[in-house]
Structures are given as C-alpha cells and as structure tokens.
Design goal:
By secondary structure, this protein is an all-alpha fold. It has one domain: Formate dehydrogenase/DMSO reductase fold. The protein is built from 12 helices and no strands. Helix 2 packs antiparallel against helix 7 (147-170). The chain starts with a helix and ends in a 5-residue tail after the last helix.
Length: 313
C-alpha cells in the first residue's frame, strides 16, 4: 500500500492505513460549533428585526440548545489536547494571525452570551419559574433590558464562529485538502443550514416553517456552489491538490462524500423542502434530520480526508 501511495514524491488518492487516523473530537467540535453558530445567528438576527412574537421557536426555544452544544464542543476539544493543563495559556495573549487565538476568544465571548440569552427568556418560557434569590431576579431583569446589545454582539460573533470552524482547518498549509479559503464560507453556510434545519425540526409555527424552508433552500444552493468551486480550485491548482481532490473523485472518500453529504445531506432535503412548499404532505422532520446529518458528515469526512492528504518527498 505504501508503494502505491508514493508516486513521484506526491500522493495517491488511496488511503494509507498509517495516515488515516480517525478521531471524533475535532469534527464533533466543528459540527456543534457550526450548529450553535447557526442557531444563535438566526435568533439574534430575527430579534433585531423585531420578530420576537412571530418567531418564538427561533428566538426563544432553539437557543436553549446552543450553550449545551458549545460546552459539549469545548469538552471534545479539551479531550483532544495533548497538554490539557496548559489550555489557559490561550487566554494570556491575543494573536490576530492565529486561528486558535481567534477561536478561543470567540468561544469565550459567545458561550456566556448564549447562556445569558437563554437566562433572559426562562421566566417567559416557563411561567411557573420563580427565582428564590432576589439577586438572580434582578440579574434577569437587567439582562432582559440589555437583550438588544447582546443580540448585536451575538450576531457578529456567531458569524465569526461559523467561519472560524473552517479557517481552523485551512490554516494547516501542510494538508493540501484543507489549504483552501473556501472552507471558511463552506462551513459557515453548512452551520447556518443546520441551524435552520434544527428550527424546522422543533417549530410548530407555520410562518417560521415556511420561512426557514425558503432560507434552507437558498443556503443549500450556496453550499453546493462552494463545493463545486472548491473542487474546481483544486483541479486548477498544483498536482498535489489535484490528487487531494481525487480522494473525492474516484478515491476512497468518493462514496461517503457524494452520498452522505451531497445527495442525502443536500439534494434530497432540498427536493423534499421544495415539495413541502408546493403543498405536498411530507413530514418536515425528514429533511431537517437529513440536513443536520449531512452537516455532521461534512465535518467528519473533510477532517479525516485532510489527514490523508499530505506532501510526500
């Protein structure tokens, strides 16, 4: 197998078992980060547009999942660290040229903000909820008054978080598959699509469902454009990037990528959502679950395929 891999100092689009190290922590972290970013973006965006009463699932209910996702993602990231006791050193300096620094500080901002956002709606979502502490009651009233400021900060940092999940990989120049500027926008749109799908999954509101079907269709079209553009860029680039693209164009990642990510995760749900908009009776949870599944598979496949693609001399 090794002999097949090394051809003229480059790589072959077949997987060397020694290179295919399958980890779940990083793709899981990228997935939950993107999903949380999508949920928080839509919640803060539509709050700022004054849709609080028209879109309760988007603004009030869906964000409850976001801090859980972010904490779970941070836990997975912590498990992946080799030197776990030194993670705090990321917060002793800000390096604008470092994706890890951007990610660490973005998570430090958006995680507590997502918690405050949920905290501000607890009394409204659960009318019988009663704070026994006067201090917590005062804090709740204070956060409610500052919701608009929180929404402005959150909409900004949710976009940064969504893009960062792709930039984190593209900063690795030694991995030809990851070394593309398309990953940032691709992972952002994938996160927004997953966020829209989650809102579709939990919503019983007709207005919200109709709106997010249209939004998701547009986002899926943009995702497909980015994927096509990414492979066109690879095929028009250096030989090693052409060979990295071949992992998905006849290589060992061809079937899982085009079936699980593109077909089941994008084309099928887009078709089902279109049919729903035309009045066909299709359970809305089916396309929503497929979109979320496709978003998860995108991260797992790109992360693990990227570990296989490399420069060999």
């Amino acid at each position: 197998m090794k002999e097949e891999l090394i051809i003229s100092g480059r790589m072959n689009p077949k997987i060397d078992p020694e290179l295919a190290i399958w980890h779940w922590e990083i793709p899981f972290y990228l997935f939950v980060g993107g999903l949380a970013a999508g949920i928080l973006f839509f919640a803060s965006f539509y709050y700022l547009r004054g849709k609080e009463n028209e879109m309760p699932n988007t603004i009030k209910w869906a964000p409850i999942l976001a801090p859980i996702l972010l904490v779970a993602g941070l836990g997975a990231l912590f498990l992946d660290l080799n030197h776990k006791l030194y993670f705090w050193q990321l917060y002793t300096i800000i390096k604008l040229q470092s994706p890890m620094s951007w990610g660490a500080w973005t998570l430090l901002v958006i995680t507590p903000l997502s918690m405050l956002w949920c905290f501000s709606y607890l009394g409204e979502l659960f009318p019988k909820w009663n704070w026994k502490s006067q201090m917590l009651s005062k804090l709740e009233n204070y956060v409610i008054k500052k919701r608009r400021i929180i929404a402005w900060v959150m909409v900004f940092f949710s976009v940064i978080l969504g893009i960062y999940t792709g930039i984190l990989l593209s900063a690795f120049n030694a991995r030809p598959l990851w070394n593309t500027s398309i990953l940032g926008p691709l992972f952002l749109t994938s996160g927004l699509s997953a966020g829209a799908a989650f809102i579709l999954l939990i919503s019983k509101n007709k207005y919200e469902k109709q709106l997010f079907r249209k939004i998701d269709l547009i986002i899926i079209a943009v995702e497909l454009f980015f994927i096509i553009h990414m492979f066109m860029g690879f095929l028009a680039s250096t030989q090693v990037q052409i060979e990295a693209a071949q992992l998905f164009l006849g290589g060992d990642f061809t079937l899982p990528f085009w079936v699980f990510v593109v077909f089941l995760g994008m084309i099928v749900p887009a078709l089902l959502e279109y049919l729903e908009m035309k009045g066909q009776k299709i359970p809305s949870y089916i396309p929503a679950v497929l979109v979320i599944f496709g978003s998860l598979m995108l991260r797992f496949i790109i992360v693990n395929a990227g570990q296989v693609s490399r420069y060999l001399y």
